[in-house]
Model the fold of this input.
Amino acid sequence: MQPAARTDPVTGAALSNAQVTALIRDSEALEVSAGLELLDITLAVLADLSDFFAGGTLSRSGYATLHGTATLAVAQELDWGTAILRPYMTLSDGTVTARFNLGAYLTSSPTTEAGSDPITHDITGYDILHWLNTPVGEAYVVAAGTRYLAAAEQILQTQGITRYLIDQSQADKTLAAPRVWVLDQNTTWLNIINDLLAGVSYQGLWSDWDGALRATPYLLPTARASEWLYDTAQATSMLAPARSITRDFFDAPNRWVFYWSQDPAGAAPVDGAGVYTYVNQSNGPTSVAARRRVITAAPQQLDVVDQDSLVALAQSKIDADLRLSTTIDVPVAPNPLHWHFDRVTAADPGVGPLAEVLVTKWTLPLDGSDMAQAWSVL
Done:
């Protein structure tokens, strides 16, 4: 989730995590408004378009190639081929006001409502990641001995991206052999960067609430702290009554085998040195114990730098498979702190006492109406 602490745009006062949490969760009456900024690729603000902004809806899906999309209505002609828009939401209870940036989006050709007054353009916006989601148009090679993160950063810089944050904890990891991406429709700059990040067990590149791109190590959701509590207490509940639970256990695997594409030492891969096997013996309804049989997923080959990276990347893929088994769709009062794969706790009798869940999708209308969230039970 976004960091809660921020500055009140009206008074200039610093707002603590507790103040912003209370504003979102506990306020009996909230004034909700939305604004819109025009940016360049450096995320510098070129203009505030709030006076021409007629609202819209934002959606985010963690497992999609482009995580964020937006539908926006703007009564202003823009250069649709280059315009980058950043919507924001402002919440106020009359005493405290907080603003929440909600990502940067490349714009497509609009549908223009010529009969309206003023003339309004209905726009579909795409996660700023789309800047990189274009075919390379030729084979691409990263030489042996090149550092994984440096190779990814070089692509960002070559493509004109200047606002990014790369965790440097694996900065010393280098390719043991050349890596080649062939000329085809799947060889995009984004896919190459994500392949390089996966090689050192980082999650795929994602854009934050300001629009900056981020590359961070993958961490199992079960190893992360909960970022929000949703409950059904009268004073604090943000949950709407309608909640839908789906359980899909058919053919869900409980055994996985992963192996690396090339051992840097040249030895044949074996379990523990080039091969990683994981068996879910007893965790949940898809486990071996619950299903009373072993269901093996198709073995996967991974291009990674070492055994530790093989295990970490394999765990991220296993975790994604496990997340598919139980999902909960729930309407929630607007919470603009949500962002990318948030871990939250649900104290809901309909779900179970203190269920730990991962927010995999959400949709946020900018008019203050309920947002829709999809949770996967951990």
The radius of gyration is 23 Å. Residues 119 and 271 are 64 Å apart (CA to CA).
